[in-house]
Amino acid sequence: MTRYSAIALAREGLLGHRGWRAAWRRVRPAAAYDAVVVGGGGHGLATAYYLAKNHGMRRVAVLERGWIGGGNTGRNTTVIRSNYFYPESVALYDLALRLYEDLSRELNYNIMLSQRGMLIAAHTPAQMEICARIANAMQLNGVDGELMDARRALERVPLLNQGSDARYRCLGGVWQGRAGVARHDAVAWAYARAASALGVDIVENCEVTGIAIEGGAVTGVETTLGPIRTERLGLAAAGATPALAAMAGARLPIHDYALQAFVSEPVKPVLDTVLLYLGTGTYVSQSDKGELVFGGGLDRVPTHGQRGNLPVQETVISGLLEMFPAFGQLKLLRQWAGVVDVVPDSSPILGPVGPEGLYVNCGWGTGGFKAIPAGGWLLAHLLAEGRHHEISRPFDLSRFAEGRLIDEAAGSGIAH
Question: Percentage of residues in the chain with pLDDT exceeding 70?
């Protein structure tokens, strides 16, 4: 790996980075590929990497209509966890967490994984009962999780408001020590560089405008850079996936909403864990630079917009200040939104849809970033093998017709 001195870094900054080598190859698409993945975010890039690494497929292309990591991968709040309720969900998200734990070494790229733990804090007896059920389910499903009383929870987050005027006094909560955060753009860049090194073509500014079908099977895609032939097509484009699937006559039960997030000015270390407070619906962590990164629930107005608004800002910030009155003087630096693809049972859709050869990885809602390695691993298996992995099978689209929903609204309804 190339090392740069402080003087060299300053020189590159002033001269426009002309001396730096590109992290991945810039190419125009070939006429045909063994597999094409639409979506240059974390899930699409991870899919391409695992197609090459796990299945030996090198004639693979990732098509991105904008730039790599420019969608939800670069617009989330970076939390990673597997504290879900149902065994199907725990298997899925803990696969992602296990892959994350070794990702920096595997990809030779520091994704800045910090397993600082996560506390879901409760303020009513009913919420404590839910926390107890989640902790029990996690332990039964082989994932680290424990129920904490108020004393232990406050040892983790001593700044929480427990004064006489506190509206939501912490009674305890459920703790997962392996949870934490990672650098979102580093995850995208790491997968892009590793996939490119294995021969994958990453094509930016290439929009898919149609899907070619012959005899009930995919034969290629039409793009703004010309037609591309392929018999295996994966869609991993988050909120854009339903429109892409519709090009092949497939309908997906997905609604798109804005999920807003906020960053404060940096301060000295005051919060060394991730906190979700059930009383306010607000969650928060502190970045390595000292900024508070926080958010809340969905803005339940269907949209593809990526901008914040004042009503949600008021709701989320008031929740943060109820939890931490000491943060009241901090300045807000940034506010933005990501477009999240929400499914009725708050679980993703993984599997075949429509014509033969078409597969989707979508519907992650507020849980897409934490699932990137697993989503890529499983979509790669589908594309290469033409059949489900045992972990992806429960999340097939057929579950809606068969009535076997995996309702994880309690585990995934709050945004991180």
Answer: 97
